[in-house]
Amino acid sequence: MPIPQLGPNDVLVKLIASGICHSDLSAASGDWDIKAPLPFILGHEGIGRIVEFGENVTPEKYNLKLGDLIGIQLIQGTCLKCEFCLDGRETLCTTKSGAYAEYALINADFAVKLPDGLDPFKSAPLYCAGVTMYKALKVSQARSNDWISIVGVGGSLGIKYAKAMGFRVIAIVAEKDQAAANLAFEMGADEVYDGPGDQHSDFVKEKTNGGVQATIVTVPLVSAYEQALQSLKQGGCLVMIGITTKKISIAVNECIAKQIQIVGSLVGTRVDLQEALDMARKHNIECKVQTCQLEQINEVFDDMKNCRLIGRMVIDFTANSE
After folding, report:
1. pTM of the predicted structure, to 2 decimals
2. Residue 308 maps to a domain
């Protein structure tokens, strides 16, 4: 790929690592109603070093310098002028704009440095999976010592964030998936359910004496969402981050009677990302990763489709660098 042309407000980054997110697989497979214009470079969990600044970027203003490690996240720039951007909710901006290339651009206003001491390979997924789970836990309004559940092994990073926030965690993994169950325990889960997917609410209510305060659903399965709703206690909150185009059934009367909240959450703002990175540094939160080469991306996608991966896969751009 050619080096992208630097815009006046951009930072040019030479990539070191880029996490492979399940949403990249979904986008590449055309699973969603919204299609990206082609050609399109996937990747939004990149980490690399700054090699050049746009003409309008004053390094001192942004506390950046050549050689700094920064991330390439999903939201790489927004208008910064609409009501949502001005209110600090840039994830709702309708103009928001990959890291599967050796070089990438990011708007200087969205350049978030990797804190000192964090490994770029183990931390690359923090720029999507990490901040997504952190934001989901944040909007759930659960409090320290509350029981929460995380549905799907894709939320394994969320277990670490949840424990750092003081929550008690039940992880819901695929039926009889011992490797996923082991990973969930390794990440700090208090309880793990690996039984039939359409029965996890009974397990949750039994272990928590009535239900969880919040449940985060990371998988695009209707049954997972419906079971998660049933697992909530009075006043509980369902946070939706597992994207699906399918519809779920909701008993409106039960939601009203139990005063249930249902919240959709998309990654996080720059503030959320900085908070997630700072928490990762403080609590040693990192991903269990394997590395691969960019040329192996189709093999990795195939492994992801067939559930052959545990942990996260990260592209290593340093192996072929001169």
Report:
1. 0.86
2. yes
